[in-house]
Each structure stands twice: as C-alpha cells, then as structure tokens.
Amino acid sequence: MNNTINIALVGASGVVGSKIISLLEKKNVNINNFYPLGSSSVGDEISFNNKTFIIEDLSDFDSSKVHLAIFSAGSKVAKKYANDFVSNGVYVIDLSSEFRYDDNVPLIIPEINGNILKDIERPLLIANPNCSVSQLLMAIEPIHKNFDVDLLNVATYQAVSGTGKDAVKELNTQIEDSNAEAKVYPKKIAFNVIPQCDIFLDNDFTKEEMKVAWETKKILDPNIEVTATCVRVPVVNGHSEAVFLRTKKPISKDNIINLLSATRGVKIIDNPSNLEYPTPLENANDTEDVFVGRIRTQTVNKENWVSMWIVADNVYGKGAALNAVQIIEMLIEENKLC
Questions:
Q1: Average pLDDT of span 85-99
Q2: Which of 146, 171, 184, 240 sits at 20 to 30 Å (Cα–Cα) from 223?
Q3: Sequence-separated (6 or more) residues with CB below 8 Å from residue 293
C-alpha cells in the first residue's frame, strides 16, 4: 500500500478499539496521521505504532483532517456524529447496528460482497455487520453459492466481551463472589446460560436474533428463511454457533470440506475420532480465521440437511475489528481514500 491516509478512531480505548489498533499495526496500514477520539476517555493516553497519542474530544474534532473514520462507540454516538463526518467528505465505517438496515448504507463482509466498494464514487457510510453474522456467513456463503441454502437455523453462544469491558468485569466478579449482583445482564452470567442477547421485540425474538435474520438476508440472499436463538454464555471471548441449514441440492460432508478448505479466512477442525473441533478457549484468542467443525449431513424426508459448529474471535476477528480493517484495506486498494 503506497497511499498514506489520515484516520480517526472513535472509541479508541474500548475493547474493540484496542483490537483495531493492533490490527492496523499488524497489517502495516500506511497511516500518516492518527486521531484517537472519545468522550469519557478524553485525555487518556494510548499507543499506536510505538507512539503515544492523547484521546481527543469527538464533539469538537475537525473531521476534515481525516480521510476515514472508524466508529466503535455504539449506536448513540454513531447516530449523533457519523453523518457529519460523511458530509465533510470522510468515509465512515460504523461497527454499531445504527445504520445496518438502511437501504442506502452498504453492509459489508469483504470476502462476500466487497465488490460493492468498487462502485463507490464518493465518501459514504459503510456498516460493519453483527459479530455473529460475520462468522456465520463466512462459512455459509460458499455452501449457498454452490448448493442453494433456503432454510437456516442457528443457535449462538456469545461471549461477554461482545457486551464490553463492564461485562467481562462482571463475569470475573461473579466468579470470585457468588453474592455479586447482576448489573450488565438481566441475570447472573457466572456459571449460567442466559437465553437473551439484547432486548425482546414484539415478536418475542430478541433484537440480536432478528439482526441475524435481517443481516443474512441483506448480505447473502433475501430468500433465505432464517431463525436464530442467541444465548449469552460465561465465556470471556469467542462466539460459538450451532448451525443447521437446508440446501436445495444434494450435499455431502466432503463437498463442504472441499469448499471451506478453499475459502480464505475459514479453517476446518473436524476430526471426531480424535476429539478435534473448535472451541472459543482454544481458537478465539486474537485469531483472524473462522473455525468450522462438527460437520454432518443427512437426508430427512428427501430434504438435504447440514449441521456444523462455528467458532470465531468476536472482538479481534471477523466479528468486529478484523472486518473493519479489511474494509479499510479494500478502500485503499481501490484508491477510494486518495
């Protein structure tokens, strides 16, 4: 990458923000000026490329200084400030759910629909998908492309890091003190499983569950019927998913292994005889790949069914930071940030 760019990172001191910084360093993104921004963290110091930066106040930052801004500070902040950056000629990558369902905002997983970025003619807002959706579709898209998925049912087992620093702290506190109260979650998370991620909607699904359906349809195919159950588990990092899907065309385990083995960003760990399958503890610690195991196929009433288990790092990996940085890399490659 020969182009040097100026970047602002909103939410630089957060869980995801720190991982974005690590990935920008790791991938040697050619940044000329870097501006960490925040609100409650204003004045704090962070390190980037062996230099110390002071977090500036987002509310009075001159956005014309940058080519691109990453928003990793939640929906309220994105709603208040993101479009102002775009109006000043800045590309914005937003990691919240605020704009994902806007028809005029591209929802991007570079490996799947990154071609959309090639046709961009002016700075705009780009949405980063939900953490569970990104890892899910990385494994599902090759199967759908070749065997036509028409029905998808997924149960997610989501780590507390997806809720932020306070949630991680709450889990650790409750493990040490059985009398510690639940503050972040509606029930105690330590030694428990909570079948609720986000708020309940009128249809009795949670918003997180509907995100899986909405975003799968927007990114992959509106004709796929999607049902999700999203569960919070006492795991610090790494989301897991039990996936069940139906294909229109006959499919075998070998078909799936061959497809996913050739898919960039996906790794297969599937050897039941040796008890080999992915887990968040072993495979979701600052890892970039989406890991797939427990692959099974069966024919039920002449229907083709696939079952699989998917694990990925929801903070550093495809669920958040990595996907955002890959979008930046693609914008640079397409000379959109000149």
A1: 97
A2: 240
A3: 268, 269, 270, 276, 277, 278, 308, 309, 311
Whether the pTM exceeds 0.70: the reply is: yes
How far, CA to CA in Å, does 15 sit from each of 12, 127, 277, 315? Answer: 8, 18, 27, 7
Look at residue 195 and give its three-state secondary structure: coil
pLDDT of residue 272: 96
Residues 135, 319 contacting (CB under 8 angstroms) = yes
CA 321 from centre of chain = 7
Residues with Cβ within 8 Å of 174's Cβ and at least 6 positions away in sequence, in order, are 180, 182, 188, 189, 190, 191
CB within 8 Å of 268: residues ≥ 6 apart: 257, 260, 261, 291, 292, 293, 295
Q: What is the pLDDT of residues 327-337, one digit of tens each?
A: 999 999 999 98
> What is the CB neighbour count within 10 angstroms for residue 315?
26
The pLDDT assigned to 3 comes to 66
Domain spans of the chain?
5-128+320-333, 132-159+193-312
**Active-site residue numbers?**
131, 239
